[in-house]
Fold this sequence. Notes:
This protein is mainly α. The protein has 35 helices and no strands. It has helices at about 60-70, 80-105, 110-120, 125-135, 140-150, 155-170, 170-185, 190-200, 205-215, 220-230, 235-245, 250-265, 265-280, 285-295, 300-310, 315-325, 330-345, 345-360, 365-375, 380-390, 395-405, 410-425, 425-440, 445-455, 460-470, 475-485, 490-505, 510-520, 525-535, 540-550, 555-570, 570-585, 590-600, 605-615, 620-639. The chain is elongated and about 140 Å long. The relative contact order is 0.03. InterPro entries: Sel1-like (IPR006597), Sel1_AlgK (IPR050767), TPR-4 (IPR011717), TPR-like_helical_dom_sf (IPR011990), TPR_rpt (IPR019734). This is Tetratricopeptide repeat protein.
Amino acid sequence: MKLIGNNGTGERQAAGSSADTETGARPTEQATGGLPAQRGTATGAVDVTGYGPESLVHLTADQAAAGAARDLAPAVDDGDDSFETALAAREQAALEARHRGSADAGDPNAASQLGALLLRRGDLRDAEPYLRSAAAAGLRAAANNLGVLLHQQGHRAEAAQWWRQAAVAGSAPAAHALGLQLRDQGEEEAAEYWLHFAAEQGHPLGAYALGDLMEHRRDVRAERWFKAAADSGHREAAYRLARMREAAGDKDTAETWYRTAAARSHARAALRLGVLLEARGDLDEAARWYRQSAQNGEARAACALGFLLRDTGDLSAAAEWWQEAAEAGDGTAANALGALHAGRGESTVAERWYRAALDAGDHNGAFNLGLLCAGAGREAQAEQWYRRAAYAGHREACNALAIVLLQRGDESGAEPWFSKAAEAGSVDGAFNLGVLHAGRGETRQAQEWYARAAAEGHGEAALQLAVAQEQRGNLAGALERYRQAADGGSAEGGFRLASLLDRRGDADAEAEHWYAIAADAGHRRAQVRMGVRAAERGALQIAESWYRRAAEGGSRSAAFNLGLLLARQDSEAEAMLWYTRAADAGHGRAALRLALLALRRGEARQAENWCKRAAEYGPAEVAERAGRLLGALNAELSA
C-alpha cells in the first residue's frame, strides 16, 4: 500500500547559521550553536596556521569562570572524564584570556577570534564590539560573523551589509548567507549570483541552496549543484539528487545516492531505499533500512516495515510497528491496525484505530468505519461514514454510498456518486455505472463504462462486453473479451471462454485449463463439466470429487450425475439420496429415474408421483417419456 511537501528535513540553513570556515575546518551539514570565525591578517589575507574552529570548545560563561578558578585550586582526580573536562576548560579559559588581552591591546585578529568564541557560546553583547572592531579592520571572517550576530538580533539589513562586505572580499559562507537572505526577500536573481559564488568556491551549503533554488525554477542545472553538495557530505543534497534520478527513471543511480544519504542517518532516504529494495525482492535489506528510518523518527518507515512483516507472516511484530507509526500520526498504519483488529472480530478496537486514522487526516478511516458499521448491520451509521469519506473525495466511498442509495431505490441520488467514483478512477464505480445504464436499456452508455472498467482489469465488465460480442456473432471479439474477463478473475468469464473453445473444437487443452480455473473458483457448471470430462476419461474418482463439490454447492445436474456414478459403483442407496436432491431441485431426469426405480420396487403410487413431477420439470423429451410411463401406470392402477 500512498507525498506532498517540502523535501527538506530542517537541514537547510537559515541565513543566521552561516559560518566562515576558511581556517581549515570542514563545514558540516548542520550548524550547532555559534559559528567559527576566520583568522585573517589586517589586509584580509587568510592565516591558516592558527586555531581552527574545530579546536574551540563550546563553554558557557559559568563554565569558563569555573575553569579559571580551578587554575588556582589543587587538582582533584575524579576520573579520566572529569580530568579531561577540567583540562579543556582551563585551556579554553586561558585561550579566551590571551585573545582578550591581545584584542584589548588593538590586535584585530585576536578581536576576531574572541568575537567568534563569544558568539559560539551565545554571549552576543560581549562579542559584538570585538567583531565590529575586527570587521572595521578589514577581516572578512569578522564581517561574516558580525552579520551572523546581527541576523540573530533581528537586524537583517545591517547583517546583509556586513555579509556583502565579507562576500566581496571572498568569503563563501558570507556569500551563502547573503544569498539566502536575498532569496527570502524574493530577490532571486541576486540570490542566485551570491549562491553561485559560494558554490563555485566549494561551499556545500551554498551548492545545496543553489540547487534548491534552481529546482524550484525547474532548471536542469539543479542536479549539478545537488551533486556538488552531496559529494562534499551534504546528506539532504544526496537525498534530493536521488529523488531526481528516481523521477528520471534512473533507479540504479538513485539507489546509490539514497544509500549515501541513508548511511548518514537521513530518515527519508532510508525509507526510499527500503521501498526500492522491497520492490525488487530484497526484503531482508529493505527491512533493515525501514528499521533504521523508523528509529530515526520516520513514521512511514515504521508503517512500511509493518506491512513487510505482515507479508512474511509475523503479525505480532507488524502490529507493534504499526502502533508506533500510528501513535506518531501515520493514518495508513492506524488503518492497518484497524483492519487487523476487525479481522479478529475486535470491532471496538478496530473502530478506535479507524477514528485515529481519520483524526490523522486519512479519509480511508471514514470509509473503513463505514464498512465496519455495515458489517455490524448499522446501516444508517455506515451511510454517514461513507458520505463523509465521499465528500472528501474517497472514490470507493463514493461507490459504496451510491450502492446504498441504489439499494433503497434512490437511483437519481446514486448516479452522481457512481459517476464521481468512476471519474476518480474507481473501476467498480465504472462497472456499476454501466450496470445502471444497462438496466435502463441505454446500451451504448453501458458499453462505454464497461469498456473503461475492463481497460483497468475489471473482469465482470469484460464479461459483459464479451457476452454482447457473442450475441452479435463476433466470436473472435468475444474470445478476446472472455480471455480478458478470465484474466481479471471472473469465474463466469473463464467458464464461457472454455465453453466457446470447447464448441470450436480445436483447443481442448486450453478449454480444460479454463474449466479447471473456473471450477477451482467455485463455478458449479465448470465443476460439472470437469466431472463429465474426468468420467469420459475413466477417472471416476476425480469425476466423483468434482460432482460432489458442485452438488454440495447446489447444482442439481451435479447431484444427478453423482447419483448415476454411484449407481454404477453399486452404491444404490447413496445414489437415491442424490437423485432425490436433484429431483427436489427440479431436475426432470432425476425425477424420471426415481419413478423407474420406484416402479421396479413395485411402489406404483410413488412412481406415479415422480412421473408427474418429471413431466412438469421437463425438458420435452423427459416430459414425453414421463407421460407414457404415467399412462401405463394409470392403466395398471385402474385395472
